[in-house]
Amino acid sequence: MATQVEPPNGIRSPGKHYYSMWQTLFEIDTKYVPIKPIGRGAYGIVCSSVNRETNEKVAIKKINNAFENRIDALRTLRELKLLQHLRHENVIALKDVMVPVQRKSFKDVYLVYELMDTDLHQIIKSSQPLSNDHCQYFLFQLLRGLKYLHSANILHRDLKPGNLLINANCDLKICDFGLARTSTGKGQFMTEYVVTRWYRAPELLLCCDNYGTSIDVWSVGCIFAELLGRKPIFPGTECLNQLKLIINILGSQREEDLQFIDNHKAKKYIRSLPYSLGTPFSHLYPDAHPLAIDLLQKMLIFDPSKRISVLEALQHPYMSALYDTSNNPPAEVPIDLDIDEDLGEETIREMMWKEMLHYHPEAAAGNAELFS
Questions:
Q1: pTM of the predicted model, to two decimals?
Q2: From 3.30.70.1450, 1.10.510.10, 1.10.150.120, 3.30.300.30, which CATH number describes the 118-319 domain?
Q3: Contact by Cβ (8 Å): 82, 177
Q4: Which tens digit of pLDDT belongs to each residue from 294-322?
Q5: Is 62 annotated as a binding residue?
Q6: Could you say which of 29, 158, 176, 216 is catalytic?
């Protein structure tokens, strides 16, 4: 549970109060009452809370020493810039970003999200039975949220069960946009690390220079398979092993299906793998609905140019009971997420400050000097 404590050095900042959770100090706005810590990761700690002004339950994520690692600081900035624009019921909502007391020297960042009960990873590894209706509804919502992101020109690039938040009524919301990029982005980012390995598309494993929305579709296919089988379909120990597992199940690829590989060594490696007939998905998932198997096959295609698109997946017969073309509006405008990867700490901090002001117009409209 959260324990209220005295401020460090006995100096209380205006509008803030102090709590200790998992031996971590939270300096948060007084309108938020923390309840308990609910998650811990490389980024910091998340706690559940209540907004006293609205009685709304929220999740507060504290990013500790946000500028200690420049790459992580850029991830946080990217998430702030992106979530300010996204409005969709299958994408997590960022409700608030707390304004720190010191504009020029703040170290910690506090993000306030809508509160969800759990994530898909926890559900998959639990003993709770998952019916075809469950799998269908989770997949539908994931595809629906992804269609919206792609319409905004955004590749998520890190879809996995742990980044899909779930409520008790089975509502699903996509979260964690720290690796997201615009699909027409410029510069070197197209070749940098993306996607947790088990959910990484072949074109990323093979270091292809150009990729598109189909990388997210591959990740969705891996998640769908995990829903059907209650375990990861390609749990590779490292990159080359990951490719072997994929070929073992999909079968050896024809030469025409390797043309997208622009790296000579990578193409040579794929050709060198032992011949495999592959394993039919219907054998891996004998209890799955035949239409579910058909859709899974169309998502997990080695050649990205032949992989089904998100819209085509939503229009697949397996989704017909749920998909309504009139209830899936695209994003209002494409979003530009191009951020200079070489920005220094002071610039990133100032850009974060400006993002925070979107949630605090009172600070932006004349009171900013109180926080400087």
A1: 0.91
A2: 1.10.510.10
A3: yes
A4: 999 999 999 999 999 999 999 999 998 89
A5: yes
A6: 158
